[in-house]
Design brief:
This protein is an alpha/beta fold. The protein is built from 15 helices and 22 strands. The protein has helices spanning about 1-10, 25-35, 65-75, 80-90, 105-115, 185-200, 215-220, 270-285, 290-295, 325-340, 350-355, 360-365, 385-390, 400-410, 425-440; strands at about 15-20, 35-40, 55, 75-80, 95-100, 120-125, 135, 145, 150-155, 155-160, 170, 205-210, 225-230, 235-240, 250-255, 255-260, 305-310, 315-320, 345, 370-375, 395, 415-420. It has a seven-stranded mixed beta sheet with strand order 7-6-8-5-11-12-13, with helices on both faces. It has a six-stranded mixed beta sheet with strand order 17-18-22-19-20-21, sandwiched between helices. Helix 5 (about 105-115) crosses helix 9, helix 8 (about 270-285) crosses helix 9 and helix 14 (about 400-410) packs across helix 15. The longest helix has 16 residues, at about 270-285.
């Protein structure tokens, strides 16, 4: 929604918005753009009356005082995804990135490749790529890259948001069970993904992870678009001769080496993300060698294994990982990078699915690479990590106590990986502040 606000402002609209518990990087981006952000929800925020109200899906449902005022006054309203479809994506070449994991990274890579190639794309991404410093822009060409989220559109439109985007180029990264608050089972998510597949034209392209059985099942329901696979088997897009940490690899298509990538990202998951982005960019006309060169200058993404600080040899990372698979792949990539150095993992089960305990049995194995693990237990958590992760983690229900415990354990050479898809009560900065105080003693 913050990205949508930025796009609307760039089209000449005067934009303001209401939200609860907004945190960086989106809050700071909105402030830098001069977009008025009002904390919480109230009917008074609609005075003077707006010309149009764009309704998000996170926490906006009947009973919300501001939404009730919109309905009572008969204001013109629509969902964020529908506004995008009408006012931004119409008549654009949409390149959409869908999947349970890797959407933000892959969309950022793809947007940067297109930009590096001089195509000046527009984009809307659920993070802030370092090469751009913003999460959204209109662009100056037909191309528009969008992170295609499977979460539902709004309280009045229960379709996945990506059903509105109508991509010409579609990346399907992976498909796992998630979002237990709206999807009863994996089959329900597959149905939504197949609705997305149905919207891709016959002269478009689907770039699909051939190693993912759930995607194979989804495509088997019917596909009317050419598919270029990556990973899995020997055909399509593959990585070869990769460095152990994924910092370098050859790009091969149908067995032929087309380029070698040397970049700053790590992990097998990011190699897969890169292959998908390269394939999608080629569909838009970017040579593979140009895409590989662009990846060599990719500046990373905020909250994706982002180094927040290094004090007295203790490095603190921020990562958005919120699903056991993402947690495991992030830890594996960091382990390849740091070797035998200690990794201290700190987890906040912040997503609705994690809070409900859907993934609690998978969380322990996902964290096994770390040397020490702490889990924050917020009041909203519906299960006890101490029971599910007995003997493996220390469970703490106070942010300040958690900061104190990690600070007391951290030693020079350690890597503290903080994983949450929420604000985590400012944990990162509080920990860094304590480490700074310690360094001065």
């Amino acid at each position: 929604m913050g990205g949508i606000a930025a796009l609307a402002q760039s089209q000449g609209y005067r934009v303001s918005g209401s939200d609860a518990n907004v945190y960086p990087p989106m809050s700071t981006q909105l402030e830098s753009l001069g977009i008025e952000l009002m904390e919480g929800y109230a009917a008074a925020h609609l005075d003077p009356p707006p010309d149009r109200v764009v309704v998000g899906n996170a926490g906006i449902k009947r009973g919300n005082p501001e939404l009730e005022a919109v309905l009572d006054h008969g204001f013109d309203y629509l969902s964020g995804a529908e506004w995008l479809a009408r006012h931004v994506l119409r008549e654009r070449w949409v390149l959409a990135v869908a999947g349970t994991h890797g959407k933000t990274t892959t969309a950022s890579l793809l947007a940067w490749i297109l930009d590096y190639a001089g195509l000046k794309p527009g984009f809307l991404i659920g993070g802030v790529p370092g090469n751009f410093g913003i999460s959204a822009r209109l662009g100056d060409s037909p191309f528009f890259v969008i992170e295609a989220d499977e979460y539902d559109t709004s309280y009045f439109d229960r379709r996945s948001k990506f059903a509105h985007y109508r991509p010409r180029t579609l990346i399907l990264n992976n498909l796992e069970y998630d979002h237990a608050d709206i999807f009863p089972d994996l089959a329900a998510i597959k149905r939504q993904f197949h609705q997305l597949v149905r919207t891709v034209p016959g002269n478009g392209l689907i770039v699909a992870n051939a190693a993912d059985a759930n995607l194979a099942d989804t495509l088997a329901q019917g596909c009317w678009t050419p598919v270029e696979p990556f990973l899995g088997g020997k055909g399509g897009w593959q990585a070869a001769d990769a460095a152990p940490d994924g910092s370098a690899f050859d790009v091969r298509f149908n067995g032929a080496k087309l380029a070698r990538v040397k970049w700053n990202l790590i992990g097998a998951h990011n190699v897969a993300n890169a292959l998908a982005a390269i394939a999608a960019a080629r569909h838009a006309g970017v040579p593979v060698a140009t895409a590989a060169a662009a990846l060599g200058e990719f500046g990373g993404i905020k909250r994706r294994l982002e180094v927040r600080g290094e004090i007295d040899g203790v490095t603190v990372y921020d990562d958005f990982a919120h699903h056991p698979t993402a947690i495991a792949t992030t830890l594996a990539g960091l382990r390849q990078r740091v070797g035998g150095a200690r990794i201290l993992a700190v987890v906040e089960p912040a997503s609705a699915t994690m809070r409900a305990g859907v993934h609690r049995d998978a969380l322990g194995p996902a964290l096994s690479i770390a040397d020490r693990v702490w889990c924050y237990r917020p009041a909203t958590l519906k299960w006890n990590p101490a029971d599910a992760l007995a003997g493996q983690v220390e469970v703490i229900d106070s942010i300040d106590s958690l900061v104190a415990a990690v600070e007391a354990e951290a030693q020079p050479g350690d890597h503290v990986l903080v994983m949450s898809n929420g604000g985590f009560g400012g944990f990162h900065e509080k920990l860094l502040a304590e480490l700074r105080l310690r360094s001065k003693e």
